[in-house]
Design goal:
This protein has 301 residues and is of the alpha+beta class. It has helices spanning 33-49, 53-62, 116-134, 139-153, 244-254, 260-275, and strands spanning 74-81, 92-98, 104-111, 161-168, 174-180, 185-189, 192-196, 215-219, 225-229, 237-238, 241-242, 285-292. The termini are far apart. 32% of the residues are buried.
């Protein structure tokens, strides 16, 4: 009896001629099963990784700061509008935070450029500032940290950021200010209003490590307020030229008797109206109105 072994394929059997029939042809549009599986898996991954517009908007809204503090004695009013519609975030950023000793800390900044990359850098800077405040860092330490973050995260080597950092001590008698190339501010005193320039200084990222920032102090009387803004509020063109600092101050004087939020809304509305005949505002616009609503030293009594 001969032994039995599994048969080899017919074309490998020398005792049997090869099958003359051609192998079945694959249709031109048909891919091998393993390639179809890879293609389908890749398509599913792309669909899963691509956010729908609703998710993207929800994400951006979630990254916006809550511009209030849990202290009825401190008032804030704000306006924030990125230029890249319909986005919720732009290159401008701002935040405020109250520490355990009652001091209210504030930041406003403007990253050069208007794209999504600049908006992402602005989020990094805001969160870095917030972390620095919670860690008890001084103005200078905060700005140094923000410059390091900017250099690490900026999309282009020429990207820079202007920043102003403020501390409102709880006695209400003053505000300490440190600016890195940021525009001046408006000081509201009763029915009067004036422009206050910061000490000239370098913006973050222009000459890394070459810091020339210095703290200044602005005296506040009862019910005084400070209004911060980015240059998008007044740098736009109008039918008679650039609005500028003097033009913005004139607009502010018209509404000097309005309460905080109405003042902010009126200021933005008038600045936007002046730019409308020449195409409207083209830059991000941010405004913060800040101040104690109790007499100085009331916290100590």
């Amino acid at each position: 009896m001969s032994s039995f072994s599994p048969a080899s394929p017919m074309h490998d059997d020398p005792a049997r001629p090869p099958d003359p029939r051609p192998a079945p042809a694959r249709r031109a549009h048909e891919q091998p099963p393993h390639l179809r599986t890879q293609r389908d898996t890749a398509a599913q991954a792309v669909r899963a990784a691509t956010p729908v517009p609703h998710d993207s908007a929800s994400l951006e809204r979630g990254l916006l700061p809550q511009l209030v503090v849990d202290d009825d004695a401190f008032t804030s009013a704000s306006y924030y509008a990125p230029s890249r519609a319909p986005a919720w975030l732009g290159g401008d950023f701002c935040d405020l935070l109250q520490s355990e000793d009652g001091t209210v800390h504030v930041v406003m900044g403007d990253v050069s450029g208007h794209g999504a990359a600049e908006a992402a850098v602005a989020v990094h800077l805001r969160l870095a500032w917030r972390t620095a405040v919670l860690c008890g860092q001084t103005h200078v330490q905060r700005l140094r940290l923000l410059e390091r973050v900017l250099i690490a995260e900026r999309p282009h080597e020429e990207t820079y950021a202007t920043v102003v950092s403020l501390d409102f001590p709880p006695d209400g008698r003053s505000v300490r200010v440190m600016s890195a190339g940021h525009p001046g501010l408006l000081h509201r005193q009763g029915a009067g209003i004036r422009w206050v320039d910061h000490r000239p200084s370098l913006a973050l990222g222009l000459f890394p490590g070459q810091t020339d920032w210095a703290e200044t102090e602005l005296t506040l009387a009862a019910q005084d307020a400070v209004v911060l803004f980015t240059d998008g509020l007044y740098e736009g063109r109008t039918s008679y030229g650039r609005l500028g600092e003097e033009g913005l101050l004139r607009l502010a004087a018209r509404h000097a008797r309005l309460p905080a939020q109405l003042f902010v809304d009126a200021l933005v509305r008038d600045a936007s109206a002046s730019a409308r005949p020449v195409g409207g505002a083209t830059d991000d616009v941010t405004v913060l109105h800040l101040g104690w609503n109790r007499p100085p030293d009331a916290a100590a009594r």
